[in-house]
Amino acid sequence: MPRFTTFDGLGIAYADFGDRSAFPVLCLPGLTRNHADFDCLQPHLLGFRLIAMTCRGRGDSEHDHDYRNYTVAVESRDALALLDHLEIGRAAVIGTSRGGLMAVHMASVAKQRLAGVLLNDIGPVLEMSGIMTILEYLGRQPAEPDLESLVETISSRVPGFRNVPRERWREETLRNVVETAEGLRINYDPRLREAVLATEVNTDDNWSLFRSLDGLPIALVRGANSGLLSADAAAKMRTMRPDMVFAEVPDRGHCPFLDEPESLAVIRTWLAACQNSDAQ
């Protein structure tokens, strides 16, 4: 797994798929997730260069000695540094959940580096019920004795998902835990919980930040059963940006996997707009 070094000396892991001369798409994962979030998307976009970053403190990236650096602002700076490391001037950005917040922040500080933004089940307002669901497990080691028991727990615990094969849940679980001699362990810094608890989630400035995307091709994928992004918030986003490509994915909560037919249709339409905009 390749790495680059951040401004403060941490090694950050990333995956780089596709022809280096192809149109670049930077993929930013959810809060506790890593670059493997996009493994299932990559085969559907073979004509593009997909770069998926694992944020500091997650997966194969180094942990920060100061949990207060686990913020959207710092992680966005890391993402821009990855583009610098790869000598990419502009990229389209797909942001899942936390990754979407990072993409919006990147637009607010370096819009010229973005060819477009796709938000996966995230917006300016987050529902408290969804936040509480995340806090139930965030930073806590699995209590299950083995992987199959954890797969069973996750497949029944994650709200809003239907018609998902057990093998898919197993793949998702394997991306986020490691098996050790002492049992199952989360593969991210548990102190991420402290960082999230110290963060003010919903502020009046969030809608202003959403305006940072003005002038960029944007898209929104929402899980029809999402507990984090409400239908009302998505509707307001669409009112503010009538040109935003949008799909609501049935049988999905937070977040869609992005390989659903509805998700892929949005991604392809949005990427075409990003390429057209980049060519102008």
Structure summarized in a few sentences:
By secondary structure, the chain is an alpha/beta fold.
Structural class by helix and strand composition = alpha/beta
Give the number of helices. 9
Q: What is the global morphology?
A: globular
Q: What's the alpha carbon Rg, rounded to whole Å?
A: 18 Å
Q: How are the strands of the biggest sheet laid out side by side?
A: 1-2-4-3-5-6-9-10
Q: Helix share of residues? A: 25-40%
Q: Order of helices and strands, N to C?
A: EEEEHEHEHHHEEHHEHEH
Strand content: 15-25%
| Unreliable sequence segments | none
Mean pLDDT figure = 95
Distance between the termini: 35 Å
Q: How many strand elements?
A: 10
Largest pleated sheet: 8 strands, mixed
How are the secondary structure elements laid out?
Layout: E1 3-5, E2 11-17, E3 24-28, E4 49-53, H1 72-85, E5 91-96, H2 98-110, E6 114-120, H3 128-137, H4 147-157, H5 166-174, E7 177-180, E8 183-186, H6 192-197, H7 205-210, E9 218-223, H8 231-240, E10 245-249, H9 261-279
Parallel strand pairs: 3-4, 3-5, 5-6, 6-9, 9-10
Antiparallel strand pairs: 1-2, 2-4, 7-8
Helix pairs in contact: 1-2, 4-5
Can you give keywords for this protein?
single chain; 19% strand; 280 residues; alpha/beta
Q: How does this structure look, described?
A:
35% of the residues lie in helices and 19% in strands. The protein is built from 9 helices and 10 strands. The chain has helices spanning 72-85, 98-110, 128-137, 147-157, 166-174, 192-197, 205-210, 231-240, 261-279, and strands at 3-5, 11-17, 24-28, 49-53, 91-96, 114-120, 177-180, 183-186, 218-223, 245-249. Helix 1 (72-85) packs across helix 2 and helix 4 crosses helix 5 (166-174). The relative contact order is 0.15. The mean pLDDT is 95.
